[in-house]
Amino acid sequence: MQALAQHQGIAADGNAKLGEVMQAIAEHKGCGTTGGSGKASCGSGAGQGDLPTEIWEKVKNHPCYSEEAHHHYARMHVAVAPACNIQCNYCNRKYDCANESRPGVVSEKLTPEQAAKKVLAVASTIPQMTVLGIAGPGDPLANPEKTFKTFELIAKAAPDIKLCLSTNGLTLPDHVDTIAGFNVDHVTITINMVDPEIGAKIYPWVFWKHKRYTGVEAAKLLTDRQLLGLEMLTERGILCKVNSVMIPGVNDKHLVEVNKAVKSRGAFLHNIMPLISAPEHGTVFGLNGQRGPTAQELKALQDSCEGEMNMMRHCRQCRADAVGLLGEDRSAEFTTDKIMAMEVNYDLESRKAYQEKVEEERVAKVAAKQEELSALAGEMSDIKLLVAVATKGSGLINEHFGHAKEFQVYELSTAGAKFVGHRRVDLYCQGGFGDEESLETVIRAINDCHAVFVAKIGGCPKADLLKAGIEPVDQYAHEFIEKSAIAWFKSYLDKVNSGEIEHIERGDAEIRQGALITAA
Ligand code: CLF
Ligand code: SF4
């Protein structure tokens, strides 16, 4: 419990009241049974902005539909849907669905009953787990009985958990009424093209109504069904996110058209993800050497679409059995064997109390950020730069450089701090020693950043980072990310204005694939 409280930044904020509630909840839930790292979080947050209240209510606790929520709220996936009805050139069936996952085999496929038990076990242990998603390892709607049986069991047993679904969209129009009947508020459709000529380069075949289609005919069928499904869902007020895989030279330029097409049909959010492609995955793209985009290419495309609609930039391309905050993976704590031995104590009231406290923290974070932003008012500069942040949640700079498995990236300008992505890295700290090779990969992954914010950093990596032109910043340890980044940016501008330093643009960075290490 002590470790959990520290992890959640309670000591750092001196919030004794929150600490008491956490203590009570943890005791009530029997946190000791988790045996895990206690990577729960509580936090702070951006407000409703100009979102209508009914939409805000749907997104504020959903880690994928709200960037801000992903610092505080967790999701879990249950792998109940093994079959698929199409073939994507970036997918190999022995790996997770690339629509919603990074390559990596699903540890266990579950029956709906096992899935429901797992959801209750996770919800009892991780009070900020608010969303249950079905995202594979195949396509949930190619396995409708298992998918909807799972929803039925969970809706009955855990009514406060939001249900979420991710599909390739081929059979979506046939299931819209059932989806609405289960009060599913969030549906993701992976749409990589609206031009069948381009689609034919991505999808070798689709299987529909007992018939296999290939080439342009297959892609035309798929795009028609996807767009129809999207329209039907948005007509019913269901929030739709569109995922698109960016495949350089195949659909990268075309995704601007996709963005317009899905926006005009009412999509709420567009998530352009980098292609994951390596020969060892055994996919068509992996084997033919198709590369993924660089960090700069991905950001440029996301930026160019942003005027059209909300862009998601915090997707972690999760496994189909992921558990925890985005960016962490606690699935190994919840294997079927462990769940069966767990004492499940699903208590709605405790979950509610915990989440109310998280809301209080979100408000405190917004206030801190606003205060710092007012210090930037009046600054005249068109400098925009990126910084990397080591965090384990709660919107705090609370991770040691050597322990970071990913860095969050913020773009700083006189408009403030904006989250623009994350970079997976190999762990630098290997059992007490710094690994020089890993450090090189970390530097390549954040090479476009001017500074890296950490809770702590050793002398050696500090020197190497400085040599690479990246400033290690540890003076804001355990403080809120955005507030700290804005304060640092203000002092950076002061130094540029006084001539103490010269602002230099930085180069491109590598998107590291599959570097997130799962506890086995
Ligand atoms: Fe899962 Fe997807 Fe629902 Fe989120 S994931 S089904 S919308 S609950 Fe989220 Fe993971 Fe990205 Fe998906 S980070 S891969 S967008
Ligand atoms: Fe693979 Fe998902 Fe594509 Fe099906 S829809 S082929 S499971 S990536």
Main β-sheet: number of strands, strand sense, barrel status? 8 strands, mixed
Which bin fits the share of residues in helices? 25-40%
How far apart the termini lie comes to 23 Å
Number of strands: 18
Mean pLDDT metric: 82
The count of helical stretches stands at: 17
Approximate strand percentage: 15-25%
How is this structure best described in words?
- The chain is of the alpha/beta class.
- The chain contains 17 helices and 18 strands.
- It has helices at residues 2-7, 10-13, 16-29, 53-59, 112-125, 144-157, 172-181, 196-199, 215-235, 255-264, 284-287, 295-306, 336-340, 348-376, 436-445, 459-467, 481-498; strands spanning 74-77, 86-87, 129-134, 162-167, 186-190, 205-208, 211-214, 239-246, 269-274, 311-312, 323-324, 385-389, 406-413, 416-424, 429-430, 433-434, 449-453, 471-473.
- Strands 10-9-8-5-4-3-1-11 form an eight-stranded mixed sheet, with helices on one face. A five-stranded mixed sheet has the order 14-13-12-17-18. The protein has a three-stranded antiparallel sheet with strand order 2-6-7, with helices on one face.
- A hairpin with a 2-residue loop joins strand 6 and strand 7.
- The longest helix has 29 residues, at 348-376.
- The protein is globular, with a radius of gyration of 22 Å.
- The structure holds FE(8)-S(7) cluster and iron/sulfur cluster.
- The site of FE(8)-S(7) cluster has 17 residues, from strand 1, strand 3, strand 4 and strand 5.
- FE(8)-S(7) cluster (CLF) is lined by residues 64, 75, 77, 100, 131, 133, 135, 164, 166, 186, 188, 271, 315-318, 326.
